Amino acid sequence: MNVSGALNFILIYLFDAYIMVVFTRFLLQLLRADFYNPVSQFVVKATTPVLKPLRRVIPGVGGLDNASLVLIFTLIVAKLLLWSFINFGALAPLPDLAILLLKTTALLLINYFFIILLVSAVMSWVAQGYHPVAAVLFQLSDPIVAPVRRLLPAMGGIDFSPMVVMLGLYVVRILFQLDMAFVAGIPVQVP
Q: What's phi and psi for 64, nearest 5 deg?
């Protein structure tokens, strides 16, 4: 019976899902996206109970929702501390946790945009007309896809820019050795 593996899966899944919802809230505010969209309303309702008290203590500056950023990093640190305790029975040394924090944050960002690009590509093939999920996904992915879209020539009505960005994200993941071992709950060796 692999209890620690099951706990790792549940821990990582729950933390990562909520971190991505909070990051979506941060991006929606940063990009001034449509907050009347049903998807945006879900994100707001899922994050407001936690962010409202934080905003009293941590104000936003220059259009950035600093409370969301603090919450994201707090959740990542809590996830790493719990993960360390589940796998090793004690907290990992601070330098190891710092490296894991950087790797986990980078991996979460890469996975976030990869998933958004993948789902928005599928939605563009499937959805007929306006769809609220497709609209939010386009608003979230457009800032990273638009520069590539301007560089690529027109290809007969097919937009290859999301694929180029997805390949770029994967290359960055390989270059910085951001593997899935940590996400799968396998203890990683920190250099």
A: -95, 135
- Digit-coded pLDDT (tens) for 1-37: 777 778 778 888 899 999 999 999 999 988 888 888 8
The single-letter code of the amino acid at 119 is V
Tell which residue, 109, 100, 105, 131, has the closest CA to residue 24: 109
Task: Please count the other Cβ atoms lying within 10 Å of the Cβ belonging to residue 119.
Answer: 14
Q: Give how far Cα 41 sits from Cα of 24, 34, 91, 100, 161, Å.
A: 11, 9, 37, 32, 29
As to burial, measured by CB atoms within 10 angstroms (0-12 exposed, 13-18 middle, 19+ buried), residue 24 is buried
Which residue did the predictor score with more confidence, 101 or 74? 74
Locate the domains of the chain by residue range: 3-175
- The span from the CA of 167 to the CA of 189, in Å, is 26
The whole model's pTM is what?
Answer: 0.82
